[in-house]
Amino acid sequence: MSQMTLLSYLDVSCNNLSGRIPSSTQLQSFDHSRYEGNLGLCGLPLTKKCPGDEESGIQHIIGESEGEGIDEPDVWFYIGGAIGFTVGFWIACGALLLNRRGRYAFFMFLDSFEDWVYVKVVVFIANLQKDEHR
């Protein structure tokens, strides 16, 4: 079972199983509640340590990988997203700050769009009120 890679759900609670939960990322990634009712089971994700865990260092190695939090590719994804957002934001704002005609056209568009939305909302509300009075 420890060689399975596409296992998305496993619940072996209340089966009187015993021994160490195999040290594979698949079986140790499940919630500890999926193993409840098996008093003989030990190892991660359960809090019960297996005999010999402290001498062999298995618990220590597994704890280090879980304590890191975010993987390196994820860190680069977040860094790239933050840099991309910042650069894009300042390109848009810089274009508005430096180009007078562009700034004027942009704010005229926003003003006319605001008027268009206002008219659509008022007409919609008027139609709703007219339908209520019928």
Automatic annotation (TrEMBL):
- Has UniProt tagged this entry with the keyword Cell wall biogenesis/degradation? no
Give the primary localization class.
Answer: membrane
InterPro entries cross-referenced by the UniProt entry: LRR_dom_sf, RLP23-like
Which compartments does it reside in? Membrane
Which keywords describe this protein according to UniProt?
Answer: Glycoprotein, Membrane, Signal, Transmembrane, Transmembrane helix
Q: Which Gene Ontology cellular component terms are annotated?
A: membrane
Topology within the bilayer: Single-pass type I membrane protein
Question: Could you list the residue ranges that cross the membrane?
Answer: 75-98
The family database entries (Gene3D superfamilies) matched by this protein are listed as:
Ribonuclease Inhibitor
Q: What is this protein called?
A: Leucine-rich repeat-containing N-terminal plant-type domain-containing protein
> From which lineage does this chain's organism come?
Eukaryota, Viridiplantae, Streptophyta, Embryophyta, Tracheophyta
